[in-house]
Amino acid sequence: MNPYGVFVTGTDTEIGKTIVSAILVKALGAAYFKPIQTGCHIDDDTATVSRLAGLSPSETFPPCYSLIEPLSPQASAACENTVVDPARIVLPQTDRPLIVEGAGGVFVPVNDGVLYVDVMAQLDLPVILVARSGLGTINHTLLSLEALRSRGLHVAGVIMSGELNPGNRQAIEEFGRVRVLLEVPKLDTVTPETIATFAAGINLDPQIIFGQPTTIAQDNIVDLDKKHVWHPFTQAQTAPNPINIVRASGATLYTDTGKTLIDCISSWWVTTHGHAHPDVSAAIAAQAETLEQVIFADFTHPPAARLAQAVTSLLPGGLDRLFYSDNGSTAVEIALKMAHQYWRNTGDTQRVRFAAFQGGYHGDTVGAMSVGLSCGFYRGFENLTFHVDFLPYPATWDDDKAIESKENQAIEAIYAYMEQYAGQVAGIIIEPLIQGASGMRMCRPEFLRRLEKAASDCNTLVIYDEVMTGFGRTGDLFACRVAGTTPDLICLSKGLSAGFLPLAATVCRSSLYEAFLGDTFDRAFAHGHSFTANPIGCAAGLASLRVMEKENTLGRIAEINAIHRTRLDAIQSHPLVEKTRLRGSIAAFEIKTHDAAATAKLNASLKKFFMDEGFFLRPLGNIVYLMPPYCLSHEDLHGTWNVIERALERL
User: Fold this and answer.
1) Cα Rg for the chain, rounded, in angstroms?
2) Which of 356, 374, 380, 602 is the most exposed place for a label (fewest CB within 10 A)?
3) By percentage, how much of the chain surpasses pLDDT 90?
């Protein structure tokens, strides 16, 4: 079972963390783990806690590093000509709550580039901060709390160690906005008996310490889910039990059984930099403690204004007015309503028709369903939708000899449509470069450029649905930048907040925005959501853009693309593989099947095989695709392609 637990750190070294850990172990019936032990020739903290708390061998876990000198992990490791590798520090499996003790304080160096607080963020446990109750403790404790929260760590509380001081406790609780869980006085003697006596006299709420009550077993989560939860795109009667994911880090998902899954599809295409990225987590935590929500009709706030400026500065010129919402479907709804009202506000009341492309998917609200009706996901809801005209989409793949002919026919169809409904078309919506949900169907940048010219020639608006394609998926920050085109409106979501929070935006040209200005409200855009421009979501978006630059994300995407290209080329000759295709970080191919029943059977067997092998892929029918988070290592990406090749061999 994957453990739940708490990380015990201190405001300094020699502050009583080990004694506090022994008390917590005894009081909470927990196991103990100290990942990095320094000063082993003087003392062994694991042996000390085991002795004081009366633990059995199965309730203690050996350190990942046992270093001799009583120095920082970095310095102690250097004395032994070694380097501490944080990747080796993983939580042990136990059916008990787990007390994890750090070494020294929050900012103790682990190696040349990593501090202990980074290891704590990696382990992602709630934190108890041990503070010495003496002169200077208020300053040291508040600084440590700020450091922990800046890395996105949840502080369960503070434990005071030493002589009791009610003034210190009150100041730390007031200024630190934290609960002092316990005051541990200096014990005259430290023995198993004194630890047991002290532990028996305290009352710690496990829900406060661990973030969940110990009386609810984690393996009951699936039972609770099956009793109360309704899952998307799922036939509950026939679907297998959902998998309980208890945490995630980087490109890895962790189940309650301790199994790991490489997230090869970015958790439905939202996770850009990886799960629980510390920079984004820290920005969210800091914003949550400053301003969590405010109505956006009457107010603004720094995260919203700064994110709008940052996003529009990355888009082609002229796209500089941003309207916030909370998911891709609503971003599309807003774009359709904006286009419709724009023409009305300019006095052109005949432009009420919309066109979309066959196979396009734009979301599940009514307007989004209307422009996505041809994708096949909405059987039974046709009567709820409004009329939309569907145009041919020139899907292409590697070595497609007919692509120019298909594009010519599609452009001819667009001009013919515009001529037939001259003066009536409000806008054309497209997923630029890649139609996602209908099977990663790709078109060339050349087609988007020709579409833009046709729309300009016929005086209609172009709407790009970049909900999936935005923020690096197509090789540049946006598909419109890849194609060198400028739509009139663009819809963004998913990667906008790095996948951390629901957040969306619809961005339009200034000329559209200006058509809504006037002296009366009837010209205004009467649309909004309760959580429009949520400050926490906007803070996540700003942090994500900073990470894009800091980590050279576009460079990483180019490396992913190169590996995809090599591995796609290697499977092209397989007799069951066809229509390989690649754009940016997205690779896809089709497996030949005979009919719908065979496709459904293939889909289920592939998904199970990948999951059993430790890789989360979710084929679209007979189409296998990869859309990994950008942090995925080259080794894990090759590992994913290896398991795909094994799946093909089984077929």
Assistant:
1) 28
2) 380
3) 73
Could you give the strand order of the β-sheet that contains 461-465, starting from the edge strand earlier in sequence? 319-325, 504-509, 489-492, 461-465, 425-430, 353-357, 389-391
The pLDDT value recorded for residue 41 is: 65
How far apart are alpha carbons 204 and 182 in whole angstroms?
Answer: 8
Alpha helices, DSSP H only, in 29-113?
45-53, 73-79
Backbone angles phi, psi at 646, to 5 degrees: -65, -35
Q: Nearest to residue 368, comparing CAs of 408, 318, 334? A: 334
- Sign of the Cα torsion 99, 103, 106, 109 reads negative
Integer Cα distance of 332 and 466 in angstroms: 10
Q: pTM score, two decimals?
A: 0.74
Q: Alpha helices, DSSP H only, in 9-136?
A: 17-28, 45-53, 73-79, 116-123
Question: How far is the C-alpha of 574 from the C-alpha of 35, rounded, in Å?
Answer: 47
Residue showing tokens 């090599």:
566
Q: In the prediction, which pLDDT does 152 show?
A: 80
Which structure tokens are listed for 213? 């009550």
Is residue 137 within 8 Å of 297, Cβ to Cβ? Answer: no
What stretches of 16-172 adopt beta strand conformation (E)?
A: 31-33, 36-37, 60-61, 65-66, 98-105, 109-111, 114-115, 127-132, 155-161
* pLDDT top residue among 2 and 287: 287
Q: Which residues pair with 324 in a beta bridge?
A: 505
Domains of the chain, start order: 5-210 (3.40.50.300), 219-273+551-651 (3.90.1150.10), 301-550 (3.40.640.10)
Q: Mean per-residue pLDDT for 352-372?
A: 97
- What the block records as the tokens of 317 is 């010129």
- pLDDT per position as a tens digit, 365-394: 999 999 999 998 999 999 999 999 999 999
Lookup: tokens for 339: 């286009």
Length of the chain counted residue by residue: 651
Mean pLDDT of 583-608: 94
> Scanning the structure block, which residue is given the tokens 């201190």?
10
d(CA 618, CA 436): 13
Angstrom CA distances, 423 to 156, 292, 354, 409, stand at: 63, 46, 12, 22
Determine the Cα–Cα distance for residues 451 and 484; give it in Å rounded to an integer: 12
CA distances from 155 to 10, 378, 557 (A): 12, 45, 35
Q: What is the DSSP string of 312-332?
A: HHHSPTTEEEEEEESSHHHHH
Query: For the chain, give me the number of helices (H) and strands (E)?
Result: 22, 27
Which range in 4-18, 130-144, 402-416 is most confidently predicted, on average pLDDT? Answer: 402-416
For residue 441, the model assigns a pLDDT of 98
How far is CA 298 from its chain centroid? 30
Q: Kindly state the tokens that stand for 379.
A: 């059987």
The candidate with the shortest Cα–Cα distance to 252, out of 276, 217, 280, is 276
Measure CA 498 to chain center.
5
Is 213 exposed, middle or buried (CB count within 10 Å of its CB: 0-12, 13-18, 19+)?
Answer: exposed
Inform me whether the pLDDT recorded for 1 exceeds 70.
Answer: no
As to burial, measured by CB atoms within 10 angstroms (0-12 exposed, 13-18 middle, 19+ buried), residue 218 is middle
3-class secondary structure, 272: coil
Highest-confidence segment of 138-142, 149-153, 577-581, 596-600 = 577-581
